[in-house]
Amino acid sequence: MKKKILLFSLIIALTITLCACTDQGLRGGYLADDENNTDELPLIRCGYMSDKTTFEITDVTLTFCYGVAGPVYSWPNDYFNSFTTNKVVIQFRTDDETVYECKTIDDTLFSEKYEIFKDKKGVPEEFTIPAEAFNEETGVVMFDVIQYGIKQGETEWEEIERGITGIHYRKNNRNTVELSNKPFD
Length: 185
What we know:
Elements: H1 2-21, E1 26-29, E2 43-50, E3 54-56, E4 60-69, H2 77-81, E5 83-93, E6 99-105, E7 115-116, E8 123-129, E9 138-151, E10 158-171, E11 176-180
């Protein structure tokens, strides 16, 4: 009888330990909020997801999703028509404002393919956060999606809209990093 109780206790302790050590995954930005109000003026939304929270520091690859929430037609037409050229810059930014550009799209986010509604999640794309972005023991790496435009007769890019989400990190050692939606204590 003692052996059965001891074995049963050992199984329960082992199960609790294994469950506590499992990576539960990560979901943040607009993806963490299922109650998005899509009746507002268009706003660039971005989020991220992964099946794990701990990564090798040289391979922190997450799925990022971005797009415009709300109907595109709610902006005044003359505002959109004033821009003759558009681009979208997708980048990572650190606490010290160092920027790591991921991608530039010669397109506008204010088109149907980028719309985000409750049944769609925008454009999902995998990006790897550069190891250099984890420059402190703990901190935040920002994921920025910035829409720029040039107005007719102008030569300078103007920021139209920006979407930002932050990912908190903690270095576990020099080779691994843990990510979270909330700051580490």
